[in-house]
Amino acid sequence: MSEMIWFNGEVLPLAEARIGVEDRGFQFADGVYEVIRFYNGRTFTLSEHLDRLTRSCEGIRLAMPLKKQELMREIGKFIEKSPVREGMIYLQITRGPAPRNHIFAPSRPTVLFYARPLPPVAPAGTAEGLKLISQNDERWQRCWIKSIALLPNVLAKNAAVSAGCDEAVFVEKGIVTECSASNFFAVAGGKVLTHPVGPKVLPGITRLVLMDLCKQLDVPFVERAISEAECLAADEVFITSTTREIGWVARWNDRQIGNGSCGVITRKIHGAYQKLVTERTQ
Amino acid sequence: MSEMIWFNGEVLPLAEARIGVEDRGFQFADGVYEVIRFYNGRTFTLSEHLDRLTRSCEGIRLAMPLKKQELMREIGKFIEKSPVREGMIYLQITRGPAPRNHIFAPSRPTVLFYARPLPPVAPAGTAEGLKLISQNDERWQRCWIKSIALLPNVLAKNAAVSAGCDEAVFVEKGIVTECSASNFFAVAGGKVLTHPVGPKVLPGITRLVLMDLCKQLDVPFVERAISEAECLAADEVFITSTTREIGWVARWNDRQIGNGSCGVITRKIHGAYQKLVTERTQ
């Protein structure tokens, strides 16, 4: 069975969904996106993702072409028919096709989503530790918008991979902001530290869930600017994203973090996260 | 006759050129572009544009899919067959289609260009003056790459248009860098002042031509950081781009620039520019 896509209201084979060359998503990166995880055929935190999508659309002055409830229903129907049970929904909205001009003209937005299988995430603490490398944060000042203008992230991620690492950590004037495709956390003195969301930090949905879990687990969750030096000396470091959940960091700029194994707090939080996923989706 | 496009080596109607949804240009803004002006069916500064394209490709770690000479020949053949005599070539290269992942995988780049008519630019000094408005420069730090990650530029341009202006001037900590789709110049004390190219300033081709013309005209051309306050008090202000050539600025943030008419140096430079265009293309 060929891979399917929901494309401007129709469901068709992914390979048959074609974009004109003057789609503003292709010429101007004039669009936003979301990646939503589903487990056992059920989405996790779909509502939160669509709320963020709404804010991203506002951030680029694009009216949401579908109401949140409609989008939830369409995604639900799509997954039901999909052979994929464990995976992600990739969803993208662009301002649509218009003769090339920076200036907005009336256009019908392009809306699409499709499912892609993902391997199960290893139980908390059992995966191999990740290797990070610092990259100068040269991105724009509205990283709270989940836009498709991802070239800076792509370049940073590939610089990390070229250096034999898994992920790039953005550092701006000595302060750690986030990673190329994940949020960043350090654990020091029993507290979870992370940069506040804003110009350089996306309001991650996994990050949001974690804030709640930390409250429940009685782990202090502190949002403040943290320096690279402070992070390198932290007891534990981990990163979060929808597809990765929580990934513990073993090495950073070729230095070992903590004792080189998954820290107790990281493991505890990830365990609680996976328990929540199971409760909501099994 | 329908509008044609050169699309991955074939010439076909523009409407028939279709991109897959997983083209990295559509999902990651992973691509670069050029806009090349032609007059009387002849390109102007094509070689300079393709040299910049080569540097942009290097900037995003993409091997140029065609040699410069091939691209020049193909563009030449295309314009020869095109009914458009006065216009621009829009050229875009992306890393091409690949299953969505930040990490580079082997992919065949997407290469395309097409022609679009443009109205003739008014003779030097005869157009209406432009209105500018300042915008905080929130773009990334590699603006010397002419990438399709144009969302920040699009948002700035549309903020300007919403405020009844023609163009947005980026200002970073009080320093004027460039505009959303043009380079920026102030004239003070008989000198032309502009910010050096680099993290926040694209090496504009019209800007490049101007440097040469200023030398010939014996007008000092000074590259240095200039403050917004200094620019607002300048004798003349103008902006340059391939499609616009040289546009004189009448108002900025609702203040009159100079005496509110096109300045003598702007007019002189634009006149020399148009003379050069005529020499090379008529």
Descriptive report:
Two copies of one chain form a homodimer. Chain A is of the alpha+beta class and 282 residues long. Chain A folds into two domains: 4-117, 2-Layer Sandwich (D-amino Acid Aminotransferase, Chain A, domain 1); 130-281, D-amino Acid Aminotransferase, subunit A, domain 2 (D-amino Acid Aminotransferase, Chain A, domain 2), CATH 3.20.10. The first copy, chain A, is 28% helix and 31% strand. Chain A contains seven helices and 17 strands. Chain A has helices at 24-27, 46-59, 68-81, 151-162, 205-217, 228-232, 264-281, and strands spanning 4-7, 10-13, 18-20, 31-39, 42-43, 87-94, 110-117, 130-136, 167-172, 175-179, 183-188, 191-194, 221-223, 226-227, 236-241, 245-252, 255-256. In chain A, strands 8, 9, 10, 11, 12, 13, 14, 15, 16 and 17 form a ten-stranded mixed beta sheet that branches. The first copy, chain A, has a six-stranded antiparallel beta sheet with strand order 2-1-7-6-4-5. In chain A, strand 9 (167-172) and strand 10 form a beta hairpin. Chain A is globular and about 55 Å long. The mean pLDDT of chain A is 97. At the A-B interface, strand 3, helix 1, strand 6, strand 7 and helix 4 of A face strand 3, helix 1, strand 6, strand 7 and helix 4 of B. Strand 3 (18-20) of chain A pairs antiparallel with strand 3 (18-20) of chain B, so a sheet runs across the interface.
